[in-house]
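Preliminary data (for renewal application), phenylalanine complex.
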Amino acid sequence: MSGAREQFGSRIGFILAAAGSAVGIGNLVGFPVGAAKNGGGAFLLMYAIFVFAICLPVMLAEMSVGRKARKDPLGAYRILGGNSAGWKLAGWLSIVTPFMIAVFYMVITIWILGYLIEVVTGNLDVLANPAMFGEFTQSSSIFAYMAGVVGIVYLILQGGVKEGIEKAAKLLMPSLFFMLLALVIFVLFQDNAMAGVRFYLIPDFSKITAEVINGALSQAFFSLSLGMGIMITYGSYIDNRADVPGSAKLVAITDTAVAFTAGLMILPAIFSFNPQTNPADLSESSVSMIFTFLPKIFLALQASIGYVGASVVAGIFFLLVFFAAITSLVSIFEVPVAALMDEKDINRKPALVVLGILLIILACFGAMSFGISEFFTSFTSYAGANKSFFDIVIDIFYETILPLNGFLICIFVIYRWKKHNFNAALDEGAPNYKGSFFEKYVDMSVGTFIPVILLVIFVNTVAVKYFGVSLFG
Ligand code: PHE
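Predicted structure:
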């Protein structure tokens, strides 16, 4: 790109954009259900510790590398890595990973838009039929919704950093907070809601196993949008007067607060609208919760507030999830777009078009992995399980490579870019950081136990996913 690098216009714009990336489907549905099933308050406490003790320092590493290099992740690894071939490879990983994650996230966002439109057009009862999700994912209407999602993402990203990403975040994030609070208040006033709150929050330390700890840490890592080059890219759009540690803390707090608050909406809703709920039936997968379980729960509400009332509540819920998904999708797609703009010195619009076409093709393959195409549905099999094209993308990029990317950025800042440069970069714009306890903690952890933990997660995931064995017994 010729000319000055694009920048966020304000600190709050940057924080909202980064929080918009972080707050996603994982916060709204994955976290609450995971917490409820895995020890309630005990899980919550452990999750919060992981967010602040392990993920926040990684976020600082990513943001400061981006801001220092003023480049996309590929350029950042190249410039700060002194052109070494190994670090260039790490740079490639951190742009291919978000591109591939965008593929599957796009498919889920398409479904959410489809469900939102169905609810708004009066079809909540149809969605509540458990067979509907299977039929929906095989119907050709998903291609129309794909066009809708592509159009919205294109409109936001063609506006650039300030007029596109920042403006969208400033509009969508406050709307999201407002809708979430409105739903929480509504749900908490329903009969039997407290049973859900109890189920969600009462600490049960006996549920915490090694597997749960691994799961909580991975969830925290993904939830903060780490390992995808996003915070490197967004960091490259802030200036040296910005307070990186302070902003990162706010992003982590917002992300955790939204995840926690979402639990106060989802679990009481489940128990109140459908008192016969058997906790064992709650699926941990966000996807099956959103698309098969929750529509049924919303429909049960018609007994008290009528069909239209139930549709309004469901509509607000799907709109909320849709906003969360769009800001995440925008952030993740911005990474390869920024890389193409920087590396090939081309403008935003052609970069968007070229990568957009590639994304649409791969997203079609992903969308056709649920029965439309036999080829993509039964793509391959490993570790005794049949895998569709969509499954493979999730397994390889979302589950496996993210912790590896986290490991690499930690090693990179401490041993290649060097600790004193990293510290000096964090001090810039943050006068209170120097000498603080937080600085000492970050300084000590990023080169030592944090990469070790991320490496263990990576190795365990490889063992579980591809060889069917777990390191944790
Ligand atoms: N942080 C997101 C979530 O919790 C994950 C994500 C971010 C996925 C960006 C895609 C893109 O859902």
